[in-house]
Amino acid sequence: MGRPGGMMDANDPLEVGPIRLITEPDLSPNNRDNPTHTAGVTFMGQFLDHDITRDAGSRLGRVTPVRRSRNLRSATFDLDSVYGGGPDESPELYDGFRLRIESGGQFEDLLRDDDGNAILGDDRNDENLMISGLQCAFIMFHNAVLTDVSGRTPTAANFETTQRIVRHHYQWIIVHEILPQFVGQEMVDDILGNGRRVYTPNIARIPLEFQTAAYRFGHSMIRPSYRANLAGDNGDPFFAMVFNPDASGDDPEDLTGRHRAERRFIGWQTFFDFGDGEVKPNKVIDTTMSTPLFQLPMFTIPTARGEDVGPTSLATRNLLRHITWGIPSGQRVADEMGVDRLSTADLSDVGQLGANLDRSTPLFFYVLREADVVADGRHLGPVGGRIVGEVFLGILEEDSTSYLNSTDPVGGAWRPTLAQRSGSVGIDFTMADMLTIAGVDPESRGQ
Prior knowledge:
Strand order of the largest sheet: 1-8
Radius of gyration: 21 Å
CATH architecture: Orthogonal Bundle
Number of domains: 1
CATH class: Mainly Alpha
Number of helices: 15
Number of strands: 8
């Protein structure tokens, strides 16, 4: 199912180059654009994943008892991948109460050691240029809010106030901008209005069905190539493949992380809506994935000690995780949730592979196909959407410090307090507003 050139490979014509793959979508008929998403939502999804999950101890495709592996991240949207353990426990990330940021190129970059390795709370946030850019943006967002709260002399109390403001606005963006694009506004409204039905733990934790299958839907949204910025490549736009196994050197011709160079920064008008018509969309959620994802760079593949790298196809690796954890089929999960199953006709292509796969389909593949059949790939369907939606909202509801459990100064439900790009303060606070406060927006950069 997941082999290069197989049924999940979009077979993008990479030979035409990164620019034409963006400007001529008809060249990739198996890899449709999603007109309701912005391209940055993919990488915010990756950033959010790194904030709440990191599997430790499981081995790819080998049955592993659940309790043998633990989550190295807190199951809360608390930005611990940015803050680490705080100034006392992670002093290498801080200059006093400010988070450290470097440059060396045209604009901001992560802290790096002499070998170019990033120094940050979660090393996965340097896997590609977009997620390292988000890490930098949240660092600068914290520093901007800290300056506003404390002026020139921040204190421990100022730091705690800043963290609370930053986290609440981050969580607001998750619920009001990102999650509706993942699962549809109707699903978000239903969970908030009628409560959770399937994710009801006593304390917040990450279900295997979420971590191993449903939340990996974002891999289907990744484009084969992106415009990283408008004028970073000697005054010209920097276009590149998300991954290119033949790229090499200190400034490779792809968008992998772990490098510092003049052009290696993100112009966010490509990825989020600044009202200038520059946004490029995601790909739809379906059972095809962009071709570069079928030959991952080796440094992005985690391995246990003594374990071979294994397959470089991301689709194959996702499917093998079902064996690691014994994940039930999509049909069984649908039955448990009281949701109508997809028909065997909806899964006839995978059924042709045998093994009764049209009646007992790996949950990862099932969730992708469900999104395509039920929502034309624009967001997840009833199984995938409820898993992702209830875990996200459940994590926030179980966190006593989240904005959902906080009030404003007069005792009402919490609302954003930071100014939007328009200068007003209101409930429409978005990623574009956060990036503007951080000073990485197009206007601040003159690009």
